[in-house]
């Protein structure tokens, strides 16, 4: 940041090319997930001379769109498709399978289904929600797990939401199984913040940590009773005296989930909510920059494969901390995890931090992401990635 602000010289960055094939990076402190970070698009190398010559248009034409990936662009038809072929300079060129990959630019989910069925498409994540069950039964749909969590953001400075009992009651009153099974028809009910898929010392971070909210269907009635009791303790028996909660969304697709939750809160807690919708850029400004909201829909997909990408968002000094949550012990535990490469120490500290996070109901997790994906039965060899960066380099069409 200091370099970007011209407060430090570029040569103090700690990065240098030793030779044509070796890059040396000097870190300020131990970073256990550094190699994971290098797979994030921010770290992809690009040529400075190309950027200086073409500016923001460098990705438009094949002659300027130069990278070091397994495939190179030979044709780009705006709003239609992108055609790529094998990169002869790629380190694993001999093992690349498709001679050519065509990426079709398409927003119409119905057209995606038609393309898969007629054979003009082989893979698409544009799926009509109303057809998910049918497509599953036809063997055309896969649920591709994603390292991410859909949640409701809560402003802790709000007069009623600063009461932890209210936040917990709102969370417990949500039937997450209903949301997953009947509304989004994808994902896994979330009993914590960090989703399944993040590694632990031995196994999976979520499996080791377990749930903080019971998402067993048979426990939902017990959750409701506890939620009612908490609201009564907070002075809002049957919702009496509770203000109308203002809820913020960014698109129409979020409305069905909100309306289901709205009904649950009304039925079980006696409270009313209203919803307002903002265009994406305005929504981001309101929720994440200005933090001028009461509650809103949110979600996070991992930047790198480590629990820190989730928990680090809510450090008291993090600009991403839209909850305005502050807890010194939480900060200290995450600092411990960030300043060592000993995974036993890191994971222990992050589990303790997540317990504080969930005990305080900093956010309201609803479900862990899974992406409904149309996949032709003929398509084989796709390497699925839980950060949604799937590899087609070794894929093939089975005749």
Structural write-up:
Belongs to the bacterial solute-binding protein 5 family. Keywords: Signal, Transport. This is Oligopeptide ABC transporter periplasmic oligopeptide-binding protein. This protein has 399 residues and is α+β, with helices and mostly antiparallel strands. The chain folds into 2 domains: 48-144 and 373-397, D-Maltodextrin-Binding Protein, domain 2 (3-Layer(aba) Sandwich), CATH 3.40.190; 145-370, Dipeptide-binding Protein, Domain 3 (Dipeptide-binding Protein, domain 3, Roll), CATH 3.10.105. The protein is built from 13 helices and 14 strands. The chain has helices at 34-37, 48-54, 109-118, 132-137, 164-172, 176-184, 205-209, 220-233, 255-269, 280-289, 308-311, 328-338, 343-359, and strands spanning 15-19, 22-25, 71-77, 81-86, 100-104, 123-124, 141-154, 188-189, 245-249, 273-277, 295-301, 364-375, 379-380, 396-397. Strands 6, 7, 8, 9, 10, 11 and 12 form a 7-stranded mixed sheet that branches. A 3-stranded antiparallel sheet has the order 3-4-5, with no helix packed on it. The chain has a two-stranded antiparallel ribbon with strand order 1-2. A hairpin with a 3-residue loop joins strand 3 (71-77) and strand 4. Helix 5 (164-172) packs antiparallel against helix 8 and helix 12 runs antiparallel to helix 13 (343-359). The termini are far apart.
């Amino acid at each position: 940041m200091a370099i970007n602000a011209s407060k430090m010289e570029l040569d103090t960055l700690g990065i240098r090319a030793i030779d044509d094939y070796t890059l040396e990076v000097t870190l300020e402190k131990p970073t256990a997930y550094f190699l994971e970070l290098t797979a994030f698009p921010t770290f992809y190398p690009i040529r400075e001379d190309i950027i200086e010559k073409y500016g923001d248009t460098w990705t438009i034409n094949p002659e300027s769109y130069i990278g070091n990936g397994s495939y190179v662009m030979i044709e780009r038809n705006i709003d239609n498709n992108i055609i790529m072929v094998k990169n002869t300079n790629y380190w694993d060129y001999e093992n690349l399978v498709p001679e050519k990959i065509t990426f079709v630019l398409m927003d119409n989910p119905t057209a995606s289904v038609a393309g898969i069925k007629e054979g003009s498409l082989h893979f698409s994540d544009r799926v009509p929600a109303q057809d998910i069950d049918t497509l599953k039964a036809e063997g055309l749909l896969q649920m591709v797990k994603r390292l991410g969590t859909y949640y409701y953001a809560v402003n802790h400075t709000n007069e009623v939401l600063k009461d932890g009992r209210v936040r917990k009651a709102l969370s417990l009153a949500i039937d997450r199984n209903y949301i997953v099974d009947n509304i989004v028809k994808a994902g896994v009910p979330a009993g914590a913040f960090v989703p399944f898929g993040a590694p632990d010392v031995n196994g999976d971070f979520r499996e080791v940590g377990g749930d903080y909210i019971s998402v067993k269907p048979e426990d939902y009635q017990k959750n409701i009773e506890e939620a009612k009791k908490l609201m009564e303790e907070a002075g809002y028996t049957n919702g009496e005296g509770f203000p109308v909660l203002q809820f913020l969304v960014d698109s129409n697709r979020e409305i069905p989930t909100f309306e289901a939750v709205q009904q649950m809160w009304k039925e079980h807690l006696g409270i009313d909510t209203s919803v307002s919708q903002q265009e994406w850029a305005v929504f981001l400004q309101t929720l994440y920059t200005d933090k001028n909201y009461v509650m809103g829909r949110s979600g996070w997909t991992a930047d790198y494969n480590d629990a820190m990408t989730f928990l680090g968002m809510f450090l008291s000094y993090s600009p991403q901390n839209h909850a305005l949550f502050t807890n010194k012990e939480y900060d200290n535990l995450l600092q411990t995890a960030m300043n060592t490469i000993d995974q036993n120490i890191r994971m222990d500290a992050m589990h303790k931090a997540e317990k504080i996070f969930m005990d305080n109901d900093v956010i309201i997790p609803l479900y862990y992401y899974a992406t409904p994906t149309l996949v032709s039965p003929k398509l084989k060899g796709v390497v699925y990635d839980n950060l949604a960066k799937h590899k087609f380099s070794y894929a093939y069409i089975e005749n």
